[in-house]
Amino acid sequence: MLRITGGKVYDPANGIDGVIKDICIADGRIVAQAEGGQSIDASGMMVLPGGVDVHTHVAGGALNFARGLVPENQRAARKFLHTPELRSGLGGMTPTTFATGYLYAGMGWTTVNEAAVPILSARHTHEELHDIPIVDKTSLVLMGNNEFVLDLLESDDVERAQHIVSWLIWAAKAYGVKAVNPGGVAAWKWGKDAKTLSAPVEGYSRVTPAKIISNLARIVDELGLPHPLHLHCNNLGVPGNVATTIETMKVLEGRRAHMAHLQFHAYGGDDWSTMRSESAQLAEHFNRQTNLTADAGAVLFGDAVTITADGPWQHLLHELTGRKWGNLDVENETGCGIVPYVYKDRNLVNAVQWAVGLELLLLIDDPWRIFLTTDHPNGGCFWRYPEIIRLLMDVEFRKEEVKKLPAKAQKRIVLADLDRQYTLSEIVIITSAGPARSLGLTQKGHLGVGADADVTIYQEKPDDGRLFTYPRYVIKGGDIVVEEGDVRAVTNGREFIVHPACDDTIEEYLRPMFEKVYTISFENYPVDLERLRRAEVQACR
Ligand SMILES: [Zn+2]
User: If you measure from the C-alpha of residue 276 to the centroid of ligand 1, how many angstroms do you get, rounded to a whole number?
Assistant: First the structure.
């Protein structure tokens, strides 16, 4: 039993905006009243629901590929030494499993969504997710280039495609469906991309990116998954791609969808020398289409490592930068590319990217539909989120930062004209309440009775003057895990998965296909539920 007294509570999901009230906890959940037990005096502090990251990359094959390809990042990383309470590990660009949990919890975040899992590496991904302590986890399975699905769309057998998607989600023990550069990663197997939404994908005559997007969005809806289709649009990162992004939104009209790392999809211009921000145009469209949510994918200056299933984009990035490049092909399912990268404030393109992420967060008017992410580790590391929060809350500081950009870049952005400052309540929405709602995690992102007791407490007036830099307390599932920004106790997080309905006879279709085209046996393919150890099946609608 735990009672948090005297703190200013910010709980936007329940309409509470800076009200001094007690929060009571029993058996890991928020309750109306709790007698006896421990209490925390939170006078002079803000009490918020724990942070929820809607899009991050923290476990699985791509992370390990990045660690192997860029060992110098590991050498330079912050070291976590073994103590009686903590396991050893490395922080840095791609924190190792235990360190990932310590860093997220140490920042006040208590739930994370691993946004890209190939089914073939799902077993390993779950092993790593299991080893990430404290935080709860969900994961999304990659489906936008799955050849079973694409082949069925080619023959317009959409009903069977739906059963296959459903079967594959459960095989991967995933929570939702992600599509990365729909059709483009399949085309990359022949060195091609999918740049036009209405053009057939290489190797197909009747499958287009638009057809993949609309069918996957429909299938996810019909399966009743808690989180809508999670979409990484075509033409990520390239000048002029705002046209593709807006066209994608038209394809999605009337459907729910989550658009990932929108910053990377909001550029105008014809080439790299004319690239400019189109965040105003994109935000205008997005504001009207209320069925969509998005995350920012904001960029911070400094070192990063880009890791994505978007193989053709990674090859282009390698050609543009001359940096080393790694490419993986995941048979029949997806691909993966790794390129280390540095965002430089003197670089025109990087300066525009930095501005676009902030512009979208400021120009999209409903904070319930745009969430704080850096597409970790692509645009910057998740443990740098407080830097973005400061830029959103302090317009004077932000304008000073804009003035440091190259004059040429300042003409390509609108950030200097934006005076909006985020309120505390809005910060809670974009870091916790909104992502929880978009993920369909009804027990997360709020402090109402029955919610999981994931609570972050910050000083209202921290010594260094910067809000959200480190929490005074973090409570996860009712346990005090962080004090003064340091991890004091380590708990195990859970994994949320879904089990959508599926026609069992689909295995009769899949088994012979498997024997024909896969390099592993059918029996060896699905992840056994027992391997997850702390799984909790969330209901489909
Ligand atoms: Zn991502």
Answer: 22
- Helix axis angle, 506-517 to 158-172, nearest 10°: 80
**Cα of 336 from ligand 1 centre, angstroms:** 11
Q: How far is the CA of 29 from the centre of ligand 1 (A)?
A: 31
**Residues 6-24: what's their mean pLDDT?**
98
Q: Ligand 1 centroid to 341 CA: how many Å? A: 15
Which of these, 149, 139, 4, lies nearest to 473 by C-alpha position? 4
Percent of the chain with pLDDT over 90: 95
Strands of 417-506 (E only): list them.
455-459, 473-476, 479-483, 486-487, 495-498
Compute, in angstroms, the gap from residue 227 CA to the centroid of ligand 1: 16
**Tens digit of each residue's pLDDT (9 = 90 or more) over 333-380:** 999 999 999 999 999 999 999 999 999 999 999 999 999 999 999 999
pLDDT in tens, 292-307: 999 999 999 999 999 9
Q: Is the pLDDT of residue 36 over 90?
A: no
Q: pLDDT, tens digit, for every residue of 167-214?
A: 999 999 999 999 999 999 999 999 999 999 999 999 999 999 999 999
Ligand 1 geometric centre to CA of 431 (Å)? 17
* Those residues with Cβ within 8 angstroms of residue 216's Cβ, 6 or more apart along the chain or in another chain: 143, 144, 149, 165, 177, 179, 182, 229
Please check whether residue 237 is in contact with residue 312, taking contact to mean a CB–CB distance below 8 angstroms: no
* Residue 178 CA to ligand 1 centre (angstroms): 10
Summarize pLDDT for 123-171 with one digit per residue, the tens. 999 999 999 999 999 999 999 999 999 999 999 999 999 999 999 999 9
Q: Do 240 and 230 meet the contact criterion of CB atoms below 8 Å apart? A: no
The whole-angstrom separation of Cα 240 and Cα 257 is 22
Contacts of 490 (CB under 8 A, 6+ apart): 85, 86, 101, 102, 133, 134, 481
Burial classification of residue 288, based on how many CB atoms lie within 10 Å of its CB (0-12 exposed, 13-18 middle, 19 or more buried) = exposed
Q: From ligand 1's centre to the CA of 310, what distance in Å?
A: 10
Q: Work out the mean pLDDT of the chain and round it to a whole number.
A: 96
What distance in angstroms lies between residue 376's CA and the mean position of ligand 1's atoms?
Answer: 7
Interval 66-101: pLDDT, tens:
999 999 988 889 999 999 889 999 999 999 999 999
> Residue 118: is the preceding peptide bond cis (ω within 30°)?
no
- CA–centroid distance, residue 298 to ligand 1 (Å): 11
Q: How far is the CA of 185 from the centre of ligand 1 (A)?
A: 15
What's the gap in Å between 76 CA and the centre of ligand 1?
23
